[in-house]
Amino acid sequence: MRFIPSLVVTATLFLSxxxxxxxxxxxxxxxxxxxxxxxxxxxxVGELAPIVPPxxxxxxxxxxxxxxxxxxxxxxxxxxxxxSDSNIELYLASxxxxxxxxxxxxxxxxxxxxxxxxxxFTSNVWIEQAYAFYEKPSITVKLGKVYHQFSRLSDNTFYxxxxxxxxxKLDALYGLSLEGDFETESGFGLGYYGQxxxxxxxxxxxxxxxxxxxxxxxxxxxxxxxxxxxxxxxFNQLASLRFGLAGEHxxxxxxxxxxxEPQSVFRVAADLSFAYGPVRAFGEYMGxxxxxxxxxxxxxxxxxxxxxxxxxxSGRNHYVMAGAEAQIWRITGRYSFSMVKYNDLDVxxxxxxxxxxxxxxxxxxxxxxxxxxxxxxxxxxxxxDNSLNITVHARx
Length: 396
Known about the structure:
8% of the residues lie in helices and 53% in strands. The protein is mainly beta. It has a single domain (64-395), classed as Porin (Beta Barrel), CATH 2.40.160. 24% of the residues are buried.
């Protein structure tokens, strides 16, 4: 059996000699084909190792921002202001962050201004939207503080419209949003939205007493569900048409101190937008059935020489918005009309808003708008606003 140790020694000497005589190229190939040593990240001292190891790929991050500088000049004496009450201010500054890693991402939209945007805001700095998202070609899932999509149609004005001032538009709530869209080669497309929100976000643009965020005693809109469909058709490179159909249900937790019972509120909406070349026309109807406020269109009156009067609100409200815009060179002229009928109390408001946007630079626009806002009560008519509005919008 002595030949076995001799065979082992001989084989060892042969392999050693072969390794010594290997060419540099063979050595490099061996190194290339060798399995890399696994990389491990040591845990912090006294801590557990992270469950998810650090990624080798860095996230893609985008940052954009902008600011609106607004000059407001009343042209006549109205219910609240006179021509001497002109004002210039930094109306709004905002930053838009988006970080994306594969199919996941995070969106943050902090905003700030010189003073509180509305009296119910807790600060002059707030978060407009903040949500995590997961995106696939057919659907996007968003979780956090997200714009609700019941009424997506925009008139592209700076001043705004009556649905916005009643809290319908650009209203972010806390919850979950499932949304997506597709377009076929024939030109037919469909957008779809399904949303559920636990509670309102408390930072919309509604004016005093016109939305639930103004109601005292910590009243909120809860368990809001939204469904929206947007069938669309692209006829050719110039012409396209989009419809919108939406429904919403929300629960308003009025308390005994407010004088109202808790309400289940239903909303319906239908809209359309048609574009042909540089011209666009749009229209929208929204109906609300159930009360979301206590003190509008008639706010409460404290006791003076006459007894106090409670506020009054309407549970059947109808909104209309319509208008058109056209682009010529760097100028976009537009006209927007919006109205509301608070049907239970026979109060109507109408807002006319002609204006123009001049693109001075790719990142700077000048917006000039004239606002004429009327209110028609059973007993009288009043002008709520008659003003010239000049705004500079800078962005990056």
